[in-house]
Amino acid sequence: MVGGRGGDDSIPTSHVLRPTSSVALAVLLLTTACGYSLVGRSSTLPPSIRIIRFQTLANQTQRVGVEQRLSREIASELASRGRFSVQAEVAGADADLSGAVTGFSLYPVAFDTSGRAQEYQVRITARVSLKTLPEGKVLWENPSYTFQENYAFSTSAASYVDRENEAIDRVATRFAESFVSSLLEGF
Fold first, then answer.
1. pTM
2. How many domains does the chain have?
């Protein structure tokens, strides 16, 4: 009898595996045994890469300041992964991450009944590479890394320039998360 109400042959409820529990346990064991891991937390980079030299990306767009915001978020995201430290100097670094923001576009994609834009799409393109130091061997590069995201704007933005600033602020963190995941996972 299950539940501990019977005689000597009863099994306490805490020792009984329910069918859903055993299936979940089997799936967990199989996925961890096959080498699956959480997306965005693994790395295909060699274990010797611990310190990454990274300076602000160059800005090859007409949008002033976009490179500052993106670079700050990239450095923060790399450091948050736990395995890497980021520094501006070459001395002591194992790899050099460099590149340029080559494109910034902001397009309206949805309108209200008056014809005013309600939703925009921001697209950021960058040319980036990660090379070993001092050899300069390319570990990862993407000549046209593109990130785009749609979102609704607040109606408080007074001008198109204000909306561009708001767009950069809103997507910088998401850009960095996506970029660093691509970099570390070799996509």
1. 0.72
2. 2
